[in-house]
Every structure is written in C-alpha cells, then in structure tokens.
Amino acid sequence: VRAEILAVGSELLVPGREETNATEITARLRQIGIDVGARVTVADDRDLLESAFRTALSRADLVISTGGLGPTEDDLTREAAAAALGRPLGRDVSIVEALRARFARFGRTMAAVNEKQADVIEGGTVLPNLRGTAPGQRVRVEGPPPRTLVLLPGPPHEMLPMLEAQVIPALAGREGAAVLRTRILRIAAMGESDVEQVAAPVYTRTANPRTTILGGAGLTELHLTAEGATGEEAEALVEALAAALRAVLPHRIFSEDGRSLNEVVAALFIQRGVTLATAESCTGGMLAADLTAVPGASGFLREGHVTYSNPSKVRLLGVDPALLERVGAVSEEVALAMATGARRGAGSDIGVGITGIAGPDGGTPEKPVGLVFIALQGAVGDRVRRCHFPGDRPRIRRQAVQAALEMLRRGLLELPAL
Amino acid sequence: VRAEILAVGSELLVPGREETNATEITARLRQIGIDVGARVTVADDRDLLESAFRTALSRADLVISTGGLGPTEDDLTREAAAAALGRPLGRDVSIVEALRARFARFGRTMAAVNEKQADVIEGGTVLPNLRGTAPGQRVRVEGPPPRTLVLLPGPPHEMLPMLEAQVIPALAGREGAAVLRTRILRIAAMGESDVEQVAAPVYTRTANPRTTILGGAGLTELHLTAEGATGEEAEALVEALAAALRAVLPHRIFSEDGRSLNEVVAALFIQRGVTLATAESCTGGMLAADLTAVPGASGFLREGHVTYSNPSKVRLLGVDPALLERVGAVSEEVALAMATGARRGAGSDIGVGITGIAGPDGGTPEKPVGLVFIALQGAVGDRVRRCHFPGDRPRIRRQAVQAALEMLRRGLLELPAL
Residue B216 — φ and ψ, nearest 5°? Predict the structure, then answer.
C-alpha cells in the first residue's frame, strides 16, 4: 500500500507556518507498515485542490487529506474531492440535526453556512467528529486498482483522535498488511559519493530493504527500510543488509542506533578510561562544545584551549615560536605541537590539536582555504591528518570537527576497554 | 504568477526529518509577490516524480524543485522532469570537465557516477553550482500557457545561493507584481511571552504589516510583512511599525538586517577596538565557537578556555581554590574570578566567565539544573548575572551563550566607538 497525504489550507503556505498534520500522519502510517510516497500542501483553491486529489488518486492506494472541511467559503475539500472522483455530494440530514444540536448545547443558533459540513460524497462513510463540528469521511473506490480516500478535519486536536480511533484500526487490520523496520547507519569523514561507490553494489542487490543515501558536512547516512509480514522478519532483513554493509565498510560505521558521533566518542572515552585535552585554532571551540554537549563529559575532558593567535599557542600550549616562524601556524608540525602542549598541560592521556584556514580570507596557493591539520598525541600514539575540505566557513569547520572526532574514535577503538 | 514547489527525497518523508527548502523558497517568492499554490514532498521514485512534475506543470506557471540532482542512483529529478516535459537529456561535456576539475582540486579522482550530474534537459539553461557538484537547470516551456521549470540542488547551502543569485533576480523583474517587504526584528535573552506582552498591543493595531512572533532558545523574532503597490510603499509601512516596536523595546532589538547575535557582537568588538578572552565551564566552548564562526574573529578574540574541572579553573584561570571550596564552582564569585583570570592571562580588555549546571544531573535544591552565572570583567566594568534557564541540556547551554552574548552587546554599546 502506498499512501499520499494532502494538507489543505492557504495558511499552511505562509512563511513561518509549520505543517504538522501531514508529518504526524506519515509517522503513524509507517508504524503500521504503510509508506507515504508524497505529501502535498495545497492552497484553498478549488481547481488546485481537485487537481491534487485527482493526481493523488492516480498514484496512491490510500489518500488522506486534512483540512478544508469547515463551514467557510475557503473550505473546499468536499467539493474538490467529489469532483475528482466524479461523484455527487448529498446532504446528510442526520448530520445537519447533529450540528444544530451541538450549536444549541453551546447556547447558539446555527448559521446556515454550517449546513455544508453535512455534505457527504456518494458512497462515503461519515467519521463522527467528537471534538468539533466538521465530520470526516471515508470513501472506498472500487478498482482496478481499489483505493481508499479519507477526509479528515484540519485542527490537530480534532484530526488526531479521529485518525487514531476511526482510521488506523481499519488500516492496520487489512489482510497482508506489511510491517516496516528501519535502521540508520552513520559514517563520518567519508564523502557521500565515496560511501556510495562502496555500498551501492551491496544495497542495490535487494529491493527489500530499500536503501537511501544521505550526505551532510562530514557525515553520510544510509537509511535502510525493510518490509516484512512480521516485525521479526523485517528486522532480520534489516540486520542482514546491515551486516553486509559493515563488511564492505570495515570500522567505518560508527552508529546504527541513532547516536551521533560526539556521543559515540564520549562513550568510548568513558569505556576506555582515558582523558582528553583539546587545542583548537580554526574550529574555535566547536570540538570542545560538541564533546561537552554529551552529559558526563566532565568524566574525560580535562580542559580545552581556543588558541586563535600565535602568542596564545606559545603561551598556553608551549608551541616553539621558532617552529611557528619556520613552518607557519597551519602545518602538520604545529598541529602536533598543539596536541602535545594541551596533553602535557592538562596531564591528560590524549591531546588533540586542530589548526587550519576556515576562510573566507587567509588562503594562499600553498595553503588554500579549507586546508586543516588535525593531530592526536599521547595514549593513541602520534597521528596527524592533512585534510582539504570543500565548502564555506561553517562547512569547513564542521568537517574539521567531524574528522577530529572520527580520528579519536578510531584511536580509542584500538585501546583496551577498562 | 502561481508557483509550485517540489521537494524531492525519500528521506524528507521519514518521521523526524524536517523539510526546510520548500519553506525557504516560499518565503523568498512571497517577498517578490509570487504566491505558492502547492508544495509537494515526494519520494525518490521515478514514476511518482514524473507524475509530480507533470501535475505541477499542468497547474502552475512556475515550478521549482529541490533535490535529486546528485550523482547517486536515488537522484532521479533530471530524468523525471525531462520525461514530464517530453524532452530528452543531453550530456554537457563542459560540465563533465568542470566536475572533474573540482574533484582534482581536492586531490581526488572523480567516480564515473558523477557524470550524470552533467545531463541537461533539451533547451535548458545550466545554473552553475558554486558550492557543490550538481548544477541546477532552468527550462522555459513555450505556451500556451508559458511556464518556467527550475531544478535546484537539495543541500540548503548550495540551493539558497543559487536561488538568490540566479533565480530570484530573473523572476523579480516581471511587471505588475504586488510587492511584499519583510523585516525580522531579533531580541535576545527575553522570552517570547515577555516580548509579546510588550509588542502585541503595538503590532496588532495594524493588519498591514502582518506580524508573526517566533520564539527559540534565548532568541525571539518578530516577523513583519507589508504589502504595497511599490517597494517604497511597502518599505515605509515596515519601517513605521519597526519604529513603533523599537520605542516599546528600547535597546532590546539587536538586529533588523538578518544578522545573528554573534555577528552583531563580533562587529561591535571590532568597532570598539577592544579584545576578549573567554572562560567557559557549562557551555564548554560554545561561546568561543559562536564568536569564531564570524570571519575576522581573530581581530578581537585573544584566547578561550574550557575549564570543566576545578583544577583547570585554578591552574589556567588562577581561581582561588579556597574560593571554590567556600562558594562552589557554580557561583557569582567564581564566574567573576573566571572572567578576571581569563582577561589577565590573555592581557585582553574584557574577560567573560560562564559557570552553571546544564544537567541532566548535578542539580541540588540550592543549585538546581539550569542555574548559570555569567560574568563580565574589565573595560565594561564588573557585571554578574544570575540566570535560571528552563529546558534540557542543549537549551540551557544555548540560552547561557545567548545571555552572555547579550551582556557583551549591552556592555560594548556603552563604550565609545573607535
């Protein structure tokens, strides 16, 4: 079953407004194994709406709309959906009576415009609204292929209970309903196309699980989604593919459980029982900020230095001024001297040093913007990496932090656990 | 002109993922008077995508897609758009060469899969990508009615500059467009409801400009949007309301031109010709990272310390161990001693110290989670603020950084400019 969701309302297209209904419905449907192929936000315009319903019904088995069921002129969902199906609307007298009674309960007389909320698409089932005036509707369209159209109200406090009580149970009970299981494999400091070149031959062998690849600054994700008759079956399919991907990306996948790289590295520091001191130039404290974002970072992070200037590299980290003079602040040697100075000063097991050119200015032909040296020193041995990152200042800084975290992770993995 | 936006990518339909590109494009188009009729998020599925392009082209004059232009198998936007238009794709040799050169610049060999990024729809214009590999495309479709199709890449840092430089100017030149002008007033370290209480009586007096209030951690924004026959008229309406809001929020609005708080504070440091040293405990380097995110931060930031532990507060900042013993690390006195130590050590004009309890653990009845002391010392006098922030660890840390930046801003404003 493939679903499409239509969120109806011009107000949803105004900047600053967030559309939450479609997102909620997507999440809920996935839990019962129904995939959403498209999500459409559409203005209160009769022709646009009819076109949106027509398109959705042509490519999805299940179409759910939210909004546009109220009494005002802008509420056009019923008319548009009926037109898209080529069916007439009929006024349901019992709904008119129920609406009138509801108004009376609140001591008010019902304005005539409200009656259109009682219009039901021919062959449709009414979904009572326990929290508001506009009822929902469910229409089964005979095939081929058979499809289901569900119209839900827009206000979340009316829509969600109706979805939960009157829509989900009917869908979940369908025969042969599949169950989905997903997993996200995360890889740091390796480009999206490099990951794909290695991983695609593995994951394209199978259509179930499906795999999507996603790249960010210093982070690539593989999203696996498997379908099964049971949760166990779907989980086994996900695990089999994950195992095959682990084999072609040895030591590269740092997380399969949603943890981010800083969390994984912080946990390794605690497990290995080693301590850290940082010395950052171009990343200006981002690495320390990332590590201290994890609760319990005080257990391993002794101290951090932001040494943007040469004098502070000399005074705080003991970097030799002659070395700075000879090779420049952005160099393998200075990165290592920074790591060494940070480690010695703090008396920690490991020191990390980062120095580079984040731009936009300061680049030269020999040392272009994006050139970054990262050094580890101490319990994991001396390691220096020369990186040349693409992108603008924030991307270069983010990639440098990710690369430093990945170096720490690989180094820590080689140490024995406590 | 009516526009439709297609956001392409299965990952955008995964719960928890937010789609921001279509929202950004909607906002930008409104500023030049173009209304978005529908916004579609669609999975990486060849048939769905083609259907989405076909539908959009049947009901909108301007169709803009984002995503699906990369090198991987999932990137199907070019093929789907070409099929929807009934036009072939041709490989542009000059783009292939440019891609190869880009890879070479970063010392890498281009994998063959990347070549498909050079496929251009017949009759299409290439939109160079200055921040990434995949170029965009613009295709004019002869009428009736005439339409424009624009394909943009998915990563926001690639998409937004392309939109701004290569798409908006061409669209804004059309005649007869109603003109919108917007302005965002930013206020730091003052809660959304506090801002609203003061500002709402002013901005609700008028329907044009419309005003939306938006709250984040340590940041509240007022979004003003005015409509006018001309840009001048709309601008005058925005300015009149902004002036009225400035009057009820004296010294509180730190930005009306899109600049963030760290940019404003960095610019003030440069203008005032004073230097800074930081000492951070609970924010763990975030303040330094925020300030060094601004190019040219080396002009004022002498050095930064992350002193998570008491020994490092003593050794690096010269905080008196007896003081730590007597009042505890999270105290007004220690915040001031940290600021003083950072300033003295670096020989800077101002020192800032932050100490607090970010949680989730470590709180006591006297010193609960969220308690943070922020101190300034030096050229702006001695100032200490005691804050008690709500929220979880990331929100508490973010609010602490915002409050420190706001204290620096207010202090710097009182110093004479160079």
Answer: -135, -170
